[in-house]
């Protein structure tokens, strides 16, 4: 077979079926730094965890809808498509009639797959909107907290989040990058929707840019290369360090008073706090006692930062933590004190090293999207409040200065996400998922979320359908070819919703009378018109499809912050004052302190029972849970379990050596993992990446009543919002203890299908 083009969140690539039937993949020829995650694709495509047929949980099939702790525990009955679709259509009708449209939760957060038409959430939302609407979710797990904070400070977060300076500008114009949370090379290969040239990965694979100071508890957050240094800090203390740096700038007169005066408001309030009003003087000595960096080094770093053009970079991970606004806010204020905001390569960056498109040099263009219709239901949740929604209907919650109420949800519909991957405190999430009447999940694989559903509908992957794909800042639009036949009875999400829409009397409204190929042409041609209106010419669909890809036009880069800086009165920011508001009243009104502050995490900086601070960061070897059954992810496992990294001293104190199975636990939960001893980790820190498929085993001896025998850190993390302003995900860190596990470890079952029995076709 010939090579066919496609794309994915880890990049564009070529795929073909070999003569022996095996899938083979190769990087896109234009990619300077293809992602290692490509190696997971062949072993995943036809893995035994693929869902072959629609399946219904036995208890739900026999007793009908209702709350049940059988979810995630009972066997499934495999049924025919017509049976499954009739059941789902009837249940949606029942819930809407009995409990109202808000009783359907369709937030369905998750990364699904690349491809602009078959984007699972867009398909689900279009379908639900056509049948009455749904309770939705707002924001992301990725940067949900900064997305709420930044508009208060700069009016519009887009120039910072999407319009960041490219790596080329940084290499030419910046003297020093100070990267809080690091520039982890492992993360840059991923961009939502895809990327054809991994520019960021190439830069971070061998840093030859300006001086780079990485502030992190982990050496692997420092890219290899020249002029880099690793500054170890105690986790969750970055704000203290930032305050100590700011204090040094202030008392030594190194801050840019002219810039602060001309372009910002509120600096005096912050300066008073630095100088001890109220509380101690937040000087370098004070900061040092908290973060562990010597005070003399803090002062020296502050002077270095003021001596040239410095980029203050804050990773997204720092805001995925309790009080997650503070490091982003303090970082921005620090950058404002240095006076570099709006200068090329200077100022404040957010998300460099977190994701591929921040720093990418590709064009920033609109992309084709599936119209979703309008949702008549006003009820929503901040995305990371899913367990609260299900456990506490009717309760109130705060969000960005407003107060709202959780509706009484009876049906949960998930397509393209894995809450049993992404959410915190999985023992609690299991209790929450026992509450609704019905859970419907579309999945290609038997993930933990599929296993916690009542009706599981098997869907195709990108390799099994046609689509058009590109990500933010991508250089190409890719014609995504069908490389494989649909697996067994799997159908496209779109086809499933079209059948359900037919049963609910809105098929024509949902499909608009178009087949898949007609949709691709339609979306493409609408997009082509939109580009043409902006003066960009791209070929008609047929020409694009024949060529297999299209190099995107490059619009001139806009630089709103530069324009603002040059003339704050003439090009004001969309804030009340038109300037950068360092201490906006709106944040105080939402219940937070009115300026950036150091706040200790509520689980403390020290704890005798759970002395290690666990970092649950993004996995190097897969995308979240996707690809966990693939070769690259599996090769890193230890005794089949996810590796947990420990410092040699912490390991020695516990009699732990590389390769042994350990139990990681706290008051909420426990999991097994495989020990990997490494001096890349700071003492007192343990690192367990997210994404090992949740493999729960009920055991009353374990905290929470069940444990994960595979190594998913979200059994340990707390389901605690970042703040009442943002209600964001705080899953990046928690406290744990680790002990050697000497008994026979329970067998893994998550990489095999659940118990399945044949039922009505
Ligand atoms: N402790 C802790 N937890 C975290 C984080 C952390 O830092 N620490 N990070 C958080 C972050 S930033 C994120 S973004 C989330 C990610 O959480 P998710 O995005 O929910 O994780 P994925 O594993 O990518 O889930 C996507 C699912 O969609 C399925 N899928 C793929 N293609 C299709 C399709 O075409 N149709 C359908 N129906 N399904 C499809 C895949 O099989 C997969 O199961 O995790 C969050 N969780
Ligand atoms: N390979 C791969 N890449 C990915 C993803 C993936 O699943 N796999 N997911 C993508 C997604 S959805 C997102 S949102 C981004 C997330 O991007 P990030 O949130 O930035 O990524 P993380 O890997 O979670 O965290 C980055 C680093 O922050 C450091 N860190 C944690 N706590 C602290 C602290 O208190 N202080 C300091 N100074 N450093 C700390 C950790 O050492 C960690 O390695 O990654 C994207 N990239
Ligand atoms: Mo994310």
UniProtKB/TrEMBL annotation:
Domain Molybdopterin oxidoreductase: 50-502
Pfam families in UniProt: Molybdopterin, Molybdopterin_N, Molydop_binding
Family: Belongs to the prokaryotic molybdopterin-containing oxidoreductase family.
Cofactor(s) annotated in UniProt: Mo-bis(molybdopterin guanine dinucleotide)
Keyword entries, A-Z: Metal-binding, Molybdenum, Oxidoreductase, Periplasm
Residue intervals of the Molybdopterin dinucleotide-binding domain: 612-732
Domain Molybdopterin oxidoreductase N-terminal span(s) in chain numbering: 6-43
InterPro entries: Asp_de-COase-like_dom_sf, CT_DMSOR/BSOR/TMAOR, Molybdopterin_N, MoPterin_dinucl-bd_dom, Mopterin_OxRdtase, Mopterin_OxRdtase_prok_CS, Prok_Mopterin_Oxidored
Full protein name: Molybdopterin guanine dinucleotide-containing S/N-oxide reductase
UniProt keyword annotation of Iron-sulfur present: no
PANTHER family reported in the protein's UniProt record: TRIMETHYLAMINE-N-OXIDE REDUCTASE, TRIMETHYLAMINE-N-OXIDE REDUCTASE 2
Alphabetical list of CDD domains matching this protein: MopB_CT_DMSOR-BSOR-TMAOR (cd02793)
């Amino acid at each position: 077979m010939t090579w066919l083009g496609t794309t994915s969140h880890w990049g564009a690539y070529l795929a073909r079926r070999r003569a022996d039937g095996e899938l083979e993949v190769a990087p896109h020829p234009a990619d300077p730094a293809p992602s290692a995650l490509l190696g997971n694709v062949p072993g995943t495509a036809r893995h035994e965890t693929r869902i072959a047929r629609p399946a219904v949980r036995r208890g739900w099939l026999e007793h009908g809808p209702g709350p049940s702790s059988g979810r995630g525990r009972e066997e499934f009955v495999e049924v025919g498509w017509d049976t499954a679709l009739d059941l789902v259509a009837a249940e949606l009708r029942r819930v809407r009639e009995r409990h109202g449209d808000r009783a359907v939760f369709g937030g369905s957060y998750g990364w699904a797959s690349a491809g602009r038409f078959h984007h699972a959430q867009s398909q689900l939302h279009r379908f639900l909107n056509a049948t009455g609407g749904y309770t939705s979710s707002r924001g992301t797990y990725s940067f949900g907290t900064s997305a709420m904070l930044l508009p208060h400070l700069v009016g519009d977060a887009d120039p910072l989040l999407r319009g960041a300076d490219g790596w080329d500008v940084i290499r030419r114009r910046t003297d020093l990058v100070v990267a809080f949370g690091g520039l982890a090379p492992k993360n840059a290969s991923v961009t939502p929707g895809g990327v054809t040239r991994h520019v960021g990965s190439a830069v971070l694979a061998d840093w030859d840019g300006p001086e780079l100071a990485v502030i992190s508890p982990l050496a692997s957050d420092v890219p290899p290369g020249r002029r880099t240094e690793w500054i170890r800090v105690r986790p969750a203390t970055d704000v203290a360090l930032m305050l100590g740096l700011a204090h040094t700038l202030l008392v030594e007169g190194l801050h840019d008073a002219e810039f602060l005066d001309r372009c910002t408001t509120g600096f005096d309030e912050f300066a008073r706090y630095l100088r001890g009003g109220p509380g101690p003087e937040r000087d370098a000595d004070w900061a040092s006692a908290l973060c562990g960096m010597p005070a003399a080094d803090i002062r020296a770093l502050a002077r270095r930062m003021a001596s040239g053009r410095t980029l203050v970079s804050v990773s997204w991970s720092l805001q995925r933590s309790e009080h997650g606004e503070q490091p982003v806010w303090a970082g921005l204020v620090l950058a404002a004190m240095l006076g570099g905001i709006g200068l090329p390569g200077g100022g404040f960056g957010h998300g460099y090293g977190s994701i591929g498109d921040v720093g990418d040099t590709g064009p920033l263009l609109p992309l084709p999207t599936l119209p979703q219709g309008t949702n008549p239901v006003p009820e929503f949740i901040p995305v990371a409040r899913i367990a609260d929604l299900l456990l506490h209907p009717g309760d109130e919650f705060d969000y960005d200065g407003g107060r709202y109420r959780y509706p009484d949800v009876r049906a949960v519909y998930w397509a393209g996400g894995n809450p049993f991957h992404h959410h915190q405190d999985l023992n609690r999430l299991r209790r929450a998922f026992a509450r609704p009447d019905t859970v419907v999940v579309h999945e290609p694989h038997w993930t933990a979320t599929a296993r916690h559903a009542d009706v599981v509908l098997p869907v195709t992957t990108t390799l099994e359908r046609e689509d058009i794909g590109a990500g933010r800042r991508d250089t190409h639009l890719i014609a995504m070819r069908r490389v494989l036949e649909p697996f067994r009875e799997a159908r496209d999400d779109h086809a499933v919703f079209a059948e359900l829409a037919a049963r609910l009397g809105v098929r024509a409204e949902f499909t608009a009378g178009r087949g898949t190929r007609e949709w691709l042409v339609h979306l493409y041609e609408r997009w082509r018109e939109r580009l043409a209106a902006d003066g960009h010419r791209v070929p008609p669909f047929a020409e694009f499809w024949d060529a297999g890809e299209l190099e995107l036009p490059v619009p001139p880069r806009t630089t709103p912050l530069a324009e603002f800086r040059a003339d704050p009165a003439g090009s004001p920011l969309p804030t009340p004052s038109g300037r950068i508001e360092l201490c906006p009243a709106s944040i105080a009104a939402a219940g937070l302190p009115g300026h950036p502050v150091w706040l200790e995490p509520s689980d403390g900086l020290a704890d005798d029972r759970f002395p290690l601070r666990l970092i649950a960061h993004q996995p190097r070897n897969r995308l979240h849970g996707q690809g966990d059954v693939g070769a690259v992810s599996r090769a890193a496992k230890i005794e089949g379990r996810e590796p947990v990294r420990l410092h040699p001293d912490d390991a020695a104190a516990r009699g732990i050596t590389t390769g042994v199975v350990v139990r990681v636990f706290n008051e909420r939960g426990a999991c097994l993992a495989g020990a990997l001893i490494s001096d890349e980790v700071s003492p007192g820190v343990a690192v367990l990446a997210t994404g090992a498929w949740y493999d729960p085993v009920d055991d009353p001896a374990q905290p929470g009543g069940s444990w994960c025998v595979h190594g998913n850190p979200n059994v340990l993390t707390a389901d605690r919002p970042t703040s009442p302003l943002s209600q964001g995900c705080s899953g990046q860190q928690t406290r744990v203890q680790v002990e050697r596990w000497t008994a026979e470890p329970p067998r893994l079952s998550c990489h095999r299908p659940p118990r399945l029995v044949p039922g009505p076709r």
